[in-house]
Design goal:
15% helix; alpha+beta; 3 helices; eight-stranded mixed β-sheet; globular; 2,3-Dihydroxybiphenyl 1,2-Dioxygenase, domain 1; 204 residues; 13 strands; five-stranded mixed β-sheet
Amino acid sequence: MILGFAHMAVNVSDLMEAEERWKQEGYSRKALFRGVPNHPSKERYTRSYQPLHDLMLLSGEGLWPLELTYHGQVNFANTQLRWNKGAIEVVLQDPLPFRQFLVAALGFHEEGDVLVLNSRFPAWSCRLRVLAGDSQPVRLDAEGPTCLAFYCNRIAVDAETLIGLGASDYTQEFDFKLGERNMLISLMRAPGGPLLELIEPRKK
């Protein structure tokens, strides 16, 4: 079961410079992690895979949680996902299959031109606006937003459900530790190419 929205990941060429830019939008740093193992299954989503990467978690009142990543040198810009305070924007040549996937697979519902995911935990709610336009599937090591992450409680079952409803290019779940947090992770592409991350929190 999808429990709610976790964060939007944004890859950058310099974490400290990016932190200063996001501060202007109202964000502040929650945590910084250096030399975090990059699971080998994520290589398929990169042009130049690195075994380690750096992470910075940002938050702000009324703002979408962000995970800034540094995967090394970047030479390409992601344009499929765009941060917007009111609703994260997803740009696709054919928006309809992705909109249908959000409703059927992730539990979003439509409110006008926005798709909304409500959670029992208000901070885990999310708003997306799906727009028509040219874009290429995101890469984890390109500059800009890379994926949308969601919390779930049965990652193997939930991943299978998403795949049955149109997700593709998926990884098997793998263990991931970040500071004191233990979790299971699985990544996949939604229809049209947006990258999704499922996160199942684990007890210590």
